[in-house]
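hey m, so remember when u said the tokens were messed up on ur end? i reran from scratch. heres the input so u can diff it against urs
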Amino acid sequence: MTAKNIPYLGIRSNNPSLFQVSVPGSKSITNRALLLATLADGTSTLKGVLFSDDSRHFLKCIQDLGFHTTVDEEAKVVTIEGLGGAIPKEEASIYVGSAGTAARFLTAYLGLSKGTWHLDASAQMRRRPMAPLLNALQDLGCKVQYEGEEGFFPFTLISPGFTSFKATVNIDKSSQFLSALMIAAVLSPQDFEITLEGTHGMAYVDMTKRMIEDFGVKVDMEPTQEGSFHILVPAGQKLHALDYQIEPDISGACYFYAAAALTGLTIQVQDVSLDALQGDIRLLSLLESMGCLLVEVPEGVILKGPAGGTLKGVNVDMSTFSDQAITLAAMAPFFSSPTTITGIGHIRLQESDRIHAIVTELTKLGITCEEGADYITIHPGAPVPCTIDTYEDHRVAMGFSLVGLLTDGIVINNPECCSKTFENYFQVLDELANAVKTSDKFNRP
């Protein structure tokens, strides 16, 4: 199913038993599409573009490199004149803000493009790891001059272009390191091989592969005997300009599906498809396995929470959809048995130490939980009123807002941090909260 460009963002309820929600475009797909369009030969038109802090930083970086763009935020459309891999400027300074995709993808692209590039980031992004990617670029011939701590922003890249055609990268801390090299590899004049260490975040790597192939370049990815992958980007291929429709943001949609699961309501998010590129779609099948009803119709996917029932806790490896770990953790106090989330050690290195944030805020809510290096266990309980700190992390703000649907007196500090991916999130959530107050389908303990 092809996503449509829907200008409306919010709640509709023509059917009193069905709440319909529209969410912004996907951040992950928007930022990949922006970069692929610069690498393509010709003018690409991107539709359904997410406009948020992260995507605006990415777009500004592209413009600072000299690419010609036209932007229509109201219509959610961006056109980019790609130059087939060439960069208009041979030296530029760019600021990626807190956007991890911009930080990693543009670093790889510039590190393999001839020129001198000065890169800096927000205080938050300066704390996030870059060393695995920068080490790989140095092995490929790029010189990195650090202006602060080694392995972190800010730094200058002095690149001669491609001098080697084999790279090894460790993705235990972020799959974006691999995705970044895969996209940059389409510029290689020879076959480019990537040896992978680790298998974290392969759902996002698969998204990258599928999008590169949408733009016309085939990527070979073969499993190895060691349980990893060997990646080859054959030379002699070109990215082609496209009219490209960006999917709705599944990560943002999941908060409303979680709301349905907790409240017993029936919620449909417009234009979501179960075959979406985004790995967070796995949360829906998890909720279905826990007792929710899941139905796909031409207009989107519908999820209905168990009427009058309580969901049972689960033991689940969320390594392939870890952006929803906070969502499930915030739901877990309302389950009938404990929940253990595993495979999430890497989320300590994201916008915040998300495992620490989960434990700290659940404890403030009066909920018992335990943490390990890469897991968390949450016990059922009745949350008490409190103020939730968000650590400048949009996922903390949006995830813990779900507690407020069932518990009075929940205050979210700095809700504006949601502007990273979903500027109108709390406006839409308030519409839903007001709508459900009068619904006889609402489950409230």
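this time it looks ok to me. Residues 250-263 form the longest helix (14 residues). if urs says something different then somethings off w ur setup not the seq
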